[in-house]
TrEMBL record:
Organism in which the protein naturally occurs: Cytobacillus oceanisediminis
Gene Ontology MF terms in the entry: DNA-binding transcription factor activity; sequence-specific DNA binding
Domain of life: Bacteria
TM ranges: none
Any one Pfam family match given in the protein's UniProt record, by short name: HTH_18
Protein name: YesN/AraC family two-component response regulator
């Protein structure tokens, strides 16, 4: 029987998901757990095949014990979250979830996801109505891939075969089972790759792998990548070889499929800042304001498509792309872009950033979506901002520039400066300078709370050329100087 555990903080959501699964899939055994402690206890006692959990349930203090538990039990994961933010995306990536679903939950979306995971588990041999026993022939076994065992006295080589589309793995495994390798291999099918173990000899495994790939391509259009790991000191167990092959396979994120990756050492990722710098934010604001799709293409090419080893950590690249997506989201809100179609496209792009195995495909989809946004704005007259809104948009996107002035806003809006002043006074009840200072102070207050930058740095970043003037304006609008504001907010959050 297929076992599902639903773990959610909201009792209403928990009962709703439980009822949905029980009524739609009566052959499944569905249990629930409310709260983090009960979830971990239930994981250990119930040992589900599928865990549906709310990401925010996992507290940082018990994150380690949760990770250890799921590594032992190895359920498939569906994560639920309220917001499509980079932090939630990073968390989902780290957990290795099969799907990330945004709340409020669509019953159809959840059922489709659960059924797809169940079907893939059956095809991969991870689950059946009668749970199969692991093969017990002499040599290594499935459990050796996931549990540390004594180092092998024999030397061996391991090979990973990964399909670009994981749903094709059963077909790939079937092809492999009937394939005539020149040397004996022991094969295992997993959720993300087929794993082979063979005795290490002077045999040319790379040439053999290339032959296998060529023969596979004659029967299928699905692209594959093959990793060959010969091992090094400290990597003499089946599990360590399995983890090493997974690490080698991560290079396909940059290099693509249809190739053989061979090595006895593992790739080392370059650490990068996943967030846009203030200068990069400014560049992106200009790109979006000017609908500069060619500039965006050039930026993506320079930033992501001409990389060389050591490559940046793929997880950090995904976060960096969600940071860019946040800039796009703000641009969409400025022009009040909404509706089922555009939201569907936005969420599809978000899912692509989370799960696509290839960086070039992510970039291609981002360029396609941005072009779609630009075309929507150009073609829909209802999205045109009135004069006051255009000036406010100008302030929101240029407050950081110390030379911002009413004259520059007038040039941007293509109107007379005196006319703009009268429009702002009538619609907003404030002058251009008052609105500019409010925008700058609002942004500086956010930086005081969320960063460790000095007050001088924050003043400069927010467009104030003089720190004393910044302190004066901040005190007037917030009722206290910036250093006192930061201290009071830090105390309030403790």
């Amino acid at each position: 029987m297929y076992k599902v555990l639903v773990a959610n903080r909201d009792e209403y959501d928990t009962k709703g998901i439980e009822w949905l699964l029980r009524s739609s899939m009566p052959s499944w055994q569905v249990e629930t757990a409310e709260g983090e402690t009960k979830m971990i206890e239930k994981l250990e006692s119930f040992q589900p095949d599928l865990l549906i959990l709310e990401l925010d349930m996992i507290d940082e203090s018990s994150y380690g014990s949760f990770i250890k538990t799921i590594q032992i039990i190895r359920p498939d994961l569906i994560a639920l979250t309220m917001e499509a933010t980079f932090s939630q995306a990073k968390r989902a990536i780290d957990l290795g979830v099969a799907d990330l679903i945004l709340k409020p939950i669509s019953a159809d979306t959840l059922l489709k996801s659960a059924r797809r995971i169940h079907r893939l588990a059956q095809l991969n041999g991870r689950f059946s109505e009668q749970k199969p026993k692991m093969e017990a022939e002499e040599g290594c076994h499935y459990q050796d891939l996931f549990l540390e065992s004594p180092a092998s006295a024999k030397s061996f080589v391991t090979i990973g075969i990964k399909a670009e589309n994981p749903s094709e793995l059963p077909k790939l495994f079937s092809f492999l089972k009937g394939y005539s390798f020149q040397k004996a291999v022991r094969s295992f099918i997993l959720s993300d790759m087929v794993f082979l173990v063979a005795e290490q000899t002077s045999f040319a495994w790379k040439e053999e792998s290339i032959r296998f790939m060529r023969d596979w391509q004659e029967t299928s259009t699905v692209q594959i990548a093959i990793s060959i790991y010969t091992g090094q000191e400290g990597y003499s167990t089946i599990r360590s070889h399995y983890l090493a092959n997974r690490k080698l396979m991560e290079l396909t994120f940059y290099a693509g499929f249809n190739q053989v990756l061979e090595g006895n050492s593992l790739p080392k990722w370059l650490s990068i800042d996943p967030f846009l710098t203030p200068d990069e934010q400014s560049t992106w604001i200009d790109f979006l304001n000017q609908s500069d799709i060619e500039g965006i293409k050039d930026w993506f090419h320079q930033e992501f498509l001409i990389l060389a080893e050591p490559y940046p950590d793929p997880g950090l690249i995904r976060i960096r792309l969600t940071s860019i997506l946040a800039q796009i989201r703000r641009h969409m809100k400025t022009f009040r872009l909404s509706g089922e179609k555009i939201e569907k496209e936005y969420l599809r792009l978000f899912q692509t950033i989370l799960y696509s195995p290839l960086i070039y495909r992510m970039i291609k989809e981002m360029i396609r979506f941005i072009s779609f946004i630009f075309e929507t704005i150009r073609s829909d007259k209802k999205l045109k901002l009135d004069l006051a809104e255009r000036v406010l948009f100008f302030l929101e996107t240029n407050y950081w520039d110390p030379t911002v002035s009413l004259e520059k806003a007038a040039e941007y809006a293509d109107r007379n400066a005196n006319y703009i002043s009268s429009v702002l006074a009538k619609k907003c009840g404030k002058s251009f300078r008052e609105l500019l200072n409010e925008t700058r102070i609002r942004q500086s207050a956010k930086l005081l709370l969320e960063s460790e930058m000095s007050i001088k740095e924050i003043a400069s970043i927010c467009g104030f050329s003089n720190q004393q003037y910044f302190n004066k304006v901040f005190s007037k609008l917030k009722g206290m100087p910036p250093n006192q504001f930061r201290k009071s907010m830090q105390k309030a959050s403790v």
